[in-house]
Each structure stands twice: as structure tokens, then as C-alpha cells.
Task: structure prediction
Amino acid sequence: EIVLTQSPGTLSLSPGERATLSCRASQSLSSSYLAWYQQKPGQAPRLLIYGTSSRATGIPDRFSGSGSGTDFTLTISRLEPEDFAVYYCQQYGSSPWTFGQGTKVEIK
Amino acid sequence: QVQLVQSGSELKEPGASVKVSCKASAYTFTTHGVGWVRQAPGQGLEWMGWIATDTGNPTYAQDFTGRFVFSLDTSVSTAYLQISSLKAEDTAVYYCARKARGIGFFDYWGQGTLVTVSS
Result:
């Protein structure tokens, strides 16, 4: 099973700042099969990024994904008030398709 | 627009069973698999597995074999999660999600169903 480790656990930033979230895999991911989701309190997760860097439908271009092999990054270029949430990475290259433990982006 | 609508919250006693439904709309049900994800209170997301809606073939994560069963009724575009012999540690929100065509990320999610196991 591929283990995904996200860092940091919590990121305290102000609106307008840049957020950089990390997701490290215990093994190299095949074909960069990595997705990112956003979850707000009391809501279902929402797909942001798939295939490491492709934005899902309707996702603003301030969200971007990058990486390869075992190291992946989600970047939010300028935080908007609605971006404060928990973010999860998920690998889907090798079953079971595991999630990271999440990074909380909170208002500083 | 694509929607997955799940059944309502459940309160069950230990040892009982529960069946959660997930009704899909606005797309052809059998062209996308349905996955299930568990989220215990205050915890992260846990991938439980998925079911192919064209063949009915389920895939379970190791921690979800035995008491957990995925099923379908394609005539009403609905997927089901049944959990038997419920334990307190099964208390969680259970999400269904549509699997993207051909590959394993989830592009649309249900609203979640809270299952509480308590005597």
C-alpha cells in the first residue's frame, strides 16, 4: 500500500498570501496519478486537481498542482477567504487508492 | 448537473446492520464506477473501495473486507453500502463518489451519510 504523507499538518496564512502544500508518497506514483481535494467543515470533499496538474471543472486558476515520482505540491497563488479549508491528496495509481492525512489551511 | 444523493443519517445499536444508498442522476450510471470513503469524527478520509457499475464487480480496501458490502440497482441508478455487525468504531460519515471514467479519482461526491453506532 502506498502511504501519502502531507505536510505541514496546519498552515496559518493571511488572505492574499501564497500557500504551498506538500504530499510525499512512499513509492513512486505511476503516471502521476495524484489528485487533490478540498473539504470545508460539514461539506463533502471537492475535486480540485487530478493527474498531478489538471484542474477540475470550475476550479480557479489560482490553484495549481505539480510534481512527479514521490513528491507533489498543491499551490494556491493568492488565498481567498473561501480557500481556508482542509486539503487532501489521493493517489490512484496503485490499489488501494489511498489518501493523505490532510493539511489544514487556517486564517492567521 | 451530475448529482449523487445519499440517504439520511442513521442511529444503530452495536451488532445491527445498516444500508446506505447513493442515487445518481444526470449521467449514464453504468459509465462510471462508484467509490465509498469513510470519515470518522474529526479524522481524515479513508478509501473503502469501489464498485464497477457495468459489471457489479466490487473492490475492497483491506480494512473493509467481510462486514462491508457494495451493491447496485442499475434500474434506479443507485449504489448501496451495507455494513453488518456494527461496532462503535464504525461511527463515521460515509461518502459515495463517482469515479472518473477509466481512472481512480472521484469527480463528484454525495453529501455524506452519518452512521452513529451507539447503545
Summary: The mean pLDDT of chain B is 97. The interface with chain A takes residues 37, 44-47, 49, 59, 61-62, 95, 97, 100, 103-112 of chain B (CB under 8 Å). The first strand of chain B starts at residue 3 and ends at 6.
